[in-house]
Amino acid sequence: MSSPQRIPVGRKRRRPTRTGTVLSEEAIVAEALELLEAPGRSALTVRRLGEALGCDPSAVYRYFANTDALLLAVADRLIGDAFEGFAPGEDWIASLREFATRVHGSVLRHPRLATVRASRVTAGPAECRAVDTGIGILLNAGFPPSDAVRLYHVFIDTVLAHAILDAEVRDLTEQQREHQARVWQDLYGTLPPETYPNLHAVRDRLTDMADSGFPATLDVLLAQFAALRP
């Protein structure tokens, strides 16, 4: 894991911008998040960010080395928001379930950052706390360190993969989603049994395929973890 690029304190601006905003890492991250989630799919640029903050775009570089570092800071902010108020309980399965649900829900609330959340390591304080908490749940459940790390890796990658998939589906138009739901019943559910005997046998349940597979996957995953517990 590479360390985030730190900007010397002396380079940071403390005077208000022309809009009255006092620049800070938190203010820049908040504005960047708004720009990323604004209607349309415009890329995050320092120029647009400077316009929104009412400052010269170069002022952003006093806080972040580049836009990639800023993007990772935004992702870390969302991780922190997702786990606000979360405290693992004595029931480790229930704690992992809530952990997974919080991550999944956060990605769906911010779908444009789904790929960044799943593919990048932010190296920020929120992600460090999240990883520490997740591995801690498994350690406290009795798993040895090697298994705790391995299972956490499987756990978080599975959750994030489903979150990306569900975020992509949510980003479809309503017409596209309705069409996909109808296909399972109107096409797959009516295929001839002579050619597709297995689909015919489960034809009354094929509409379940239109729903997210995340809840069922999480049930199976946690059941497997429980079976592996020493």
- How much of the residues is beta strand, in percent? under 5%
Q: How far from one another are the termini? A: 30 Å
Structural class, from helix and strand content?
mainly alpha
Helix content: 55-70%
CATH topology label of the largest domain? Tetracycline Repressor, domain 2
How many DSSP H or I helices? 10
> Uncertain spans, ≥5 residues at pLDDT below 50?
none
Total beta strands? 0
Q: What would you report as the Rg, rounded to the nearest angstrom?
A: 22 Å
Regarding quaternary structure, what we see is: single chain
Average pLDDT works out at 89
CATH superfamily of the largest domain: Tetracycline Repressor, domain 2
Order of helices and strands: HHHHHHHHHH
Q: How is the biggest beta sheet arranged?
A: none
Shape: flat
Short description:
With 230 residues, the protein is mainly α. It folds into 2 domains: 9-65, Arc Repressor Mutant, subunit A (Orthogonal Bundle); 85-228, Tetracycline Repressor, domain 2 (Orthogonal Bundle), CATH 1.10.357.
Core attributes:
59% helix; Arc Repressor Mutant, subunit A; single chain; flat; 10 helices; Tetracycline Repressor, domain 2
Record the SSE blueprint.
Layout (H helix, E strand, L loop, with lengths): L24 H12 L9 H8 L13 H16 L9 H18 L4 H6 L5 H16 L4 H26 L3 H13 L10 H5 L12 H15 L2
Helix pairs in contact: 1-2, 1-3, 3-4, 3-6, 4-6, 4-7, 6-7, 7-10
Describe this protein's structure.
- The protein is mainly alpha-helical and 230 residues long.
- The protein folds into 2 domains: 9-65, Arc Repressor Mutant, subunit A (Orthogonal Bundle), CATH 1.10.10; 85-228, Tetracycline Repressor, domain 2 (Orthogonal Bundle), CATH 1.10.357.
- Helix content is 59%, strand content 0%.
- It contains 10 helices and no strands.
- It starts with 24 loop residues before the first helix and ends with a helix.
